[in-house]
Each structure stands twice: as C-alpha cells, then as structure tokens.
Design brief:
11 strands; 7-stranded mixed β-sheet; elongated; about 290 residues; alpha/beta
Length: about 290
C-alpha cells in the first residue's frame, strides 16, 4: 500500500497553479531544490511522469492533470480536519443580513466555505428587505449586510450589478393589459423605481395588492393577474421574465452592495472577502474561488 504525502501534494498543486518551481517555492516559502525534490519523490512513488518539462514553462502530463483534482480535494479535506480539531482562535457570532431575493445561489455556497474555515463562529442569517437591513446595521443589529439598490450609499461597496426584469406567470398575458396591473409589497425597494419608469413612459398602471406579504404578491403574479419585477437571477420557477418588445420600459440594473459595521474584525473581513469572490463568480463563470 502506497500512501500519498500531503506535503508533496501541496508542492505539486503549487507548481501547477504557479506555472513553475520558482514561483511555487516563493509561495510555499521553500527553496527551489526542496520543491523539486518533493516533486521527484511524488513521481517516483506514483511511478508516473506528472510534469511536462519539455517547454520553458512547466505543464502537466495527462496523469498530472488527473492527479491535480484529487490532490486539491485531499488538501482541502486535510486542512478542514486540522482547522476543525485544532483551531480555537476564532469564536463568536456574526449576523449577516441578505434580501430574500438574492439569498440564492451565492450565499449558501459562501456560508458553507465560511463554516469550513471558521467552524466555531456561528452565523445568523437575517433575511429582510434592503431598507430594513440598512436600519438593522445602523442600530447594531447586523454585522454585515447585502442590499439591492440603484446606487451605493456611504461606506458601501458594489459587488456586482444585475438586470431587473419584468416578471409574470408562465405564458401569461397580464403584461399586455391596460391599465397594467402591478403586484409589489408595500415596502419593496423596487416598487418606486418601477412606478417612476412607468410614469415616465406614459404607461397607465394600477396596484393589484396592498400588503407586506410576499406570498400574496407571488400568488397574484403566478395567477396571471398582475406583473412584478425581480432581479434576473432571482425569478422563481413558477414565473418567467417578460420580453415586452418595447411596450414596457426597460428597468435597468440594480447594484448588489455590501455594508459592514465599523471597526476591524478579521472574521468579518474574511466573510466579506468570500462574498466578494462569490459575487465575482456570478459575473465571471470561471469563478474566483470554489466552495465545493
């Protein structure tokens, strides 16, 4: 039975990521000869050639490419075990506020990665509307919040932008009727934006619901009795984006912003970095990080 050594695997992954022994050695804080020796030991143990050294830059052989995926998973598991069983530095609680319509798909992946990195830090997820989340942060009832806004306020940071789309029932006709029947909860931050754009375009409209209950709004839209507006990535499966062909005004884009309470906090900084990377991965499918 041959046992793989995580030290040699870490050097192998570093060389693959950095494209050469010199840069990998700098990242690992080792000498070039030490990294080269570990690579040689790994190849001898496997009985395979893992690196293609025929060009100026080091590449991977077919076997090396296959090993790379396994190596990453083994190192991630190794590091998670060590963190969970030995890390006692970071403990406590973080309150993260997120509007309900942008919880998926990014936030669950980020929270999974954060829990692996800080298993003793409890994250409480507060789902509410943007205006309430801004107020919660101001009162100290949240540590970090995400918002959906046309602009960005003082102390905020824009993570990405998403188009806002008209939404209606699947194969629905409500968007063609006039006056246009709308369904928005009374505190929805999108409501005044939509109304301004309709008024500017001269489209007659009527509000079909006066309620704070999001389920009532969804029921009316899904029954083809009204239309609404959501971010493109948050439209539920029982509704669809409407392409009105110019008969309704374009709704533009919304910024997904992040705000944090004042003061330095390493744990909070790490969560913020993960959210930055997560939303960067939405805009760039290649992604900035992977959470498994």
């Amino acid at each position: 039975m041959r046992n793989l050594d995580t030290t040699t695997l870490r050097s192998f992954v570093a060389v693959a990521d950095q494209g050469g022994v010199t840069r990998a050695a700098a990242v690992l804080h080792l000498t070039q000869s030490a990294v080269s020796m570990q690579l040689k030991r790994l190849e001898e143990m496997m009985g395979l050639s893992l690196l293609d050294r025929s060009n100026r830059t080091i590449g991977l052989t077919a076997a090396g490419e296959q090993l790379l995926g396994y190596a990453r998973r083994m190192l991630e598991l190794n590091d998670e075990v060590v963190r969970r069983l030995t890390e006692e530095t970071f403990e406590g609680e973080v309150i993260l506020g997120v509007p309900h319509d942008i919880v998926y798909p990014v936030v669950p992946r980020v929270l999974k990665a954060f829990n692996a990195a800080f298993p003793r830090v409890k994250v409480n997820l507060k789902s509410s509307r943007t205006l309430q989340l801004r107020e919660a942060l101001r009162k100290g009832e949240a540590d970090l919040i995400l918002t959906t806004e046309e602009g960005v306020g003082p102390g905020g940071e824009t993570l990405c932008e998403m188009p806002m789309r008209w939404t209606g029932a699947r194969d629905g006709l409500a968007w063609k009727r006039r006056p246009l029947r709308l369904a928005f909860s009374t505190n929805c931050i999108f409501r005044p934006i939509v109304l301004r754009r309709l008024d500017a375009a001269g489209v007659d409209w009527d509000m079909a619901v006066e309620s704070e209950d999001e389920r009532s709004v969804e029921a009316l839209i899904s029954a083809d009795l009204a239309v609404g507006a959501l971010l493109e990535d948050s439209i539920p499966p029982h509704q669809e984006a409407i392409s009105p062909g110019g008969s309704l005004p374009d709704l533009g884009v919304q910024k997904i912003n992040m705000y944090a309470r004042g003061g330095r906090d390493e744990v909070l900084d790490q969560l913020a970095d993960m959210l930055r990377s997560g939303y960067g991965a939405v805009a760039q499918p290649a992604g900035l990080f992977s959470v498994g």
